[in-house]
Amino acid sequence: MRLFLLGTLLTLSTSCFAQTDSIGFREDFSIFKTALLEAHPALYRFTPEKKFNAVLDSVEQQITSQTTDLQFFQLLSRIESLIREGHSGVNPSEYLKKQLHQHKIFPFLVHIKEDKLIVKESRIGKYATLKGAEIYAINGKKISEIITELEASTGIKSGFNNTFMLNRLSYDNNFSLAYYYFIDTVGTFKIDYKQVSEDICATEIEGVLDAPPHINFPKRPVEPNPPIQWEIDEQQKTAILKITTFAHWMVSYSKREYFKTFQQFFKTLDEQGIENLIIDVRTNGGGEEMIGAELLTYLVDHEFTVYKHVKAETLDFTFLNKLPDADKPDFSDKDYVKTDSGYYKVEDKILEAMYPQKKNHFKGKTYIIANGGSFSATSIFLSLAKTHGAGVIIGEESGGTFEDVDGRWRVNFTLPNSGISVSFPAWSLRINATGGDRLRGVIPDYAIDKSTEDILTEKDVEMEFAYDLIRNGAVEK
Fold first, then answer.
1. How many CB atoms sit inside 10 A of residue 115's CB?
2. Which residues, other chains included, contact 472 with Cβ-Cβ below 8 Å and sequence gap of 6+?
């Protein structure tokens, strides 16, 4: 059984990197394993304990004197991928990042689907004519096979839902980095592709050297500042509220400023008699869930809570004391109740009831636009909106899962020998949501599938669809 799991999950790419010695790798693996088993609050939520532990054992047996730094990173990444919760991650060491930037990588910026890549831009001028091409295979592997391998190689996903992973891999050159780290380190690529009105053909392209290393994989979009924009379409009696992040600490916008903006916005809607509201949370990667909950108090006409419970696996993080770059939670016994399944928080602000706004509560129709980049706190907002009938959802399945999320307090440390950094939440939270699939994200009421032309021209198909619903007087689902 162990050999089968190892063969199916751990197909490692070959390289000629310098090596941390096997004793160092084994020491790092022991630290990594101990941290997960002792402190991760939801290790077996999506992967059964027996299978998870079998893979742990198999990986440990694979660490030999021939193991390279890249292979060790791949092994840890594949273990981490079994958690299937996008808040847990391992990041390449500084050594691996420097090695990457000495190798040529896949030269296209792409939009990625389950079975093909769409070339948005070439980083090498002589391949500019391939913009808009649909790539079906790279070096003999179908794109669907590559996606399956990436799914088993990285934790950029939640539950059994790849929309967040595909959204993030479609940003900047994240797909090129992922291909290098988890598929192959070659510098030339044979691609099978098709351009408009042509048959599928093949060609070989060379890679491109990336810029000097400065950030971890995957790259994250730069947050617009301010994070809230709104406009009024008086002719259509429609307002558009776009929120690009709920992470107030990443922008110069305090939590209080979010709340004040909501107050001003809904006051304006009431004064102008606005009948339709479009809320755009596409590629909003999350942040403070209580900001999303505050927004819902203007849309939901009854009391609600964000979470059913908050749970920690342990209150003791002393195993982190001697590790580099360690950042650990400071939990107190008096704040938790111990049970067989973990430590449950007795009370917290995020567990308190939320009440509908008495002033300027919106009584019109609400349309929420989301996509795979709507993750974490934004996915929570969508789960609660779906549960409480706050409006119809248009677009794509969200990046989180419907009922569960891990977050807030975090465990962070660097493995002392390999230099790989590890991060995962210390809290597991059960969203007080009903009516969805807890293994998937929030499913939209109206799913939008963009064409290649829509993607290349950046046509806002979702917004146009929302306006069509408004013009046609569609009844909310």
1. 12
2. none
- pLDDT classification of 214: cutoffs 50, 70, 90: low
- Give yes or no on whether 102-209 and 228-471 have one common fold: no
User: Buried (b) or exposed (e) across 331-364, using 16+ Cβ within 10 A?
Assistant: beeeebeeeeebbebeeeebbeebeebeebebee
Q: Of 298, 303, 304, give the one whose Cα is nearest residue 362.
A: 298
For 75, the enclosing helix (H) or strand (E) is: helix 69-81
Asked, as a colleague might, if the bond just before 221 is cis with ω within 30 of 0, I would say no
Max CA-CA distance within the chain? 72
Note the pLDDT of residue 437. 95
* Cis peptide leading into residue 324 (ω within 30°): no
DSSP string, 214-269: -SPSSP-PPPPSSSEEEEEETTTTEEEEEE--B-GGGTT--HHHHHHHHHHHHHHH
Fold classified for 228-471: 2-enoyl-CoA Hydratase; Chain A, domain 1 (3.90.226)
DSSP-assigned states of every residue in 338-381: EETTEEEES--GGGS-B---SSS---SEEEEEE-TT--THHHHH
Q: Which range (16-30, 44-58, 153-167) has the least confidence?
A: 16-30
In this prediction, residue 181 carries a pLDDT of: 96
Q: Quick one: pLDDT at residue 8?
A: 37
The answer to whether the beta carbons of residues 341 and 311 sit under 8 Å apart is: yes
In the chain, the amino acid numbered 56 is: L
| 3-class DSSP state of 104 | strand
CATH number attached to the domain at 102-209: 2.30.42.10
Tell me how far apart the alpha carbons of residues 91 and 94 are, in angstroms, rounded to a whole number. 9
In the predicted structure, residue 330 carries a pLDDT above the cut 80: yes
pLDDT band at 197 (very low <50, low <70, confident <90, very high): confident
CA end-to-end span of the chain, whole Å? Answer: 47
* Sequence spans of domains, the chain: 2-91, 102-209, 228-471
Structure-block tokens of residue 218? 């995957």
CB 43 within 8 Å of CB 8:
no
Whole-angstrom Cα distance, residue 370 to residue 399?
9
